[in-house]
Amino acid sequence: MSLSIQTNQLTKSYGRSRGIIDVTFGIQEGEVFGFLGPNGAGKTTTMRVLMGLLHASSGSATIGGLDCWKASTEVKKLIGYLPSEFSFDPGLRGAQIIEYLGHLRGGVDQSSVRALIERLGLDPSKRFREYSHGNKQKVGLVQAFMHKPRLLILDEPTSGLDPLNQQEFYHMVAEVRADGRTVFLSSHILPEVEQTCDRVAIIREGRLVKIDHVAALKEIRQHDVELSFPDTASIEWFKTVAGVTSVAQGADERTLQLNVQGPLMEIIHLASQHDATNIATREPTLEEVFLRFYEPEQAPSALAG
Ligand SMILES: Nc1ncnc2c1ncn2[C@@H]1O[C@H](COP(=O)(O)OP(=O)(O)O)[C@@H](O)[C@H]1O
Ligand SMILES: [Mg+2]
Q1: What superfamily does domain 5-218 belong to in CATH?
Q2: Distance separating alpha carbons of residues 69 and 110, to the nearest angstrom
Q3: Would the CB of 125 count as within 6 Å of ligand 1?
Q4: Domain spans of the chain?
């Protein structure tokens, strides 16, 4: 059986508030597929429907041809799942939680558990309530990866992890991909999806806006650049440079505010020709990028219904 994921016009409403609307996508076995969207976009809702934890209002979701709601027990057995807020009995120690979940699963190789604990730098002797958000996340990652599932569904897996652990997580995903196994992960961080995934579905306000190879993310990746000069700066210097989507005066006449798509090389070169005294760059948040790229709804927080 091929463990592909397929949703068709999947819709889930929470009473009057929208969850997700007409979400249709497919993931082939062996893909690392990213689900990118700002907070409240509908990532967790979609993943919970796939896990058979939420009943869709309409549309369908199948994994390996099995209906995610009707065959949820069978479906869950096939998957390693990291929920968006991994929580457990607060009095149990990390090692006990992992052991308990391992027994439930069956067939968990203890050496792979130890290796995961070591890689992520988790102290398994602490009680769950004593763990920081990042350490809870590590317990969640160990239990999702430990039985080497053919399909991993990971809801914001790097949330709370420090940069070193994030890198380790990226290696873990690369190994799963090399094994020919499948990963479906959600994130609100564009560079993270760019780095880890083959394809990406972009979700905004409950609806899919794009499904493409991650290379397409280059088109929406941007930098905000602030340039300072010793004397009055002219907007004209940068107006016609390739990739510059806007130029405006900054806090005073000696600073310029640019929005740039693509490489910054030419900007830096030009700035230095004009004796720039400072260059500050910032990567806009996904919310800001989306507001620039996709037509906002009439009211920013408008809910359907
Ligand atoms: N239990 C719930 N009751 C009511 N609305 C909910 C519930 N869970 C999620 N929502 C709403 O559904 C939308 C999508 O939420 P969610 O799937 O959690 O997004 P994401 O995971 O992308 O941050 C949001 O508008 C959110 O407010
Ligand atoms: Mg979420």
Answers
A1: P-loop containing nucleotide triphosphate hydrolases (3.40.50.300)
A2: 31
A3: no
A4: 5-218, 222-282
* Binding site membership of 110 for ligand 1 (Cβ less than 6 Å): no
- Output the CATH code of domain 222-282: 3.30.70.100
Residue holding tokens 């869950």? Answer: 76
Q: List 14's β-bridge partners, or say none.
A: 17
- Which pLDDT belongs to residue 296? 53
Q: How much distance in Å is there from the Cα of 40 to the middle of ligand 2?
A: 7
DSSP for 164-192, please give it: HHHHHHHHHHHHHHHTT-EEEEEES-HHH
Tell me the C-alpha distance between 288 and 286, whole Å: 5
Residue 11 and residue 208 in contact, taking contact as beta carbons nearer than 8 Å? no
Measure the CA–CA gap between 47 and 45, rounded to whole angstroms. Answer: 6
Tokens of 235: 């907007």
Q: Is the CB of 52 under 6 A from ligand 1?
A: no
Which residue, chain included where needed, has tokens 């505010």? 257
- 218: phi > 0 → left, psi -120 to 50 → alpha, else beta; which? alpha
pLDDT at 256: 97
pLDDT digits (tens, 9 = 90+) for 11-54: 999 988 889 999 999 999 999 999 999 999 999 999 999 999 99
Q: Which residues contact 175 (CB under 8 A, 6 or more apart)?
A: none
**Segments in the chain below pLDDT 70:** 294-305
Asked whether 190 and 286 are in contact (CB, 8 A), the reply is yes
